[in-house]
Fold:
Amino acid sequence: MKIWTFGPENEGANIVVDMVKGAQYLNEIRDSVCSAFQNASKNGILADENMRGCRFNIVDVKVHADAVHRSGAQILPAARRLFQGLQLAARPTLLEAIFLCEITAPAQVLGGVYNTLSQRRASII
Structure:
């Protein structure tokens, strides 16, 4: 297996892996596919959020023999729509952010602090 890229920004928790055997012209479209993946992983399909924990295996590819049809202008939009379609097919979910913070307040306002935290489903440790 060959790892093509991580995303977003070449360091995220998402990955594209080349599992194709014997395909011609695959190296010529690699940069365009990786750029489309970076875009798709940075702007997720549900709310333009970053993708998290996705692996895309490229298992089969048919690349046009004519070099004009292998340019970035042809590959980028098609690959971007492919990655977005795969996200939808995987039934994505939105994750709620969880923050850990320390709150220091005078004793006379602690009731208001506890009330505000309970309205936001906070856990007090």
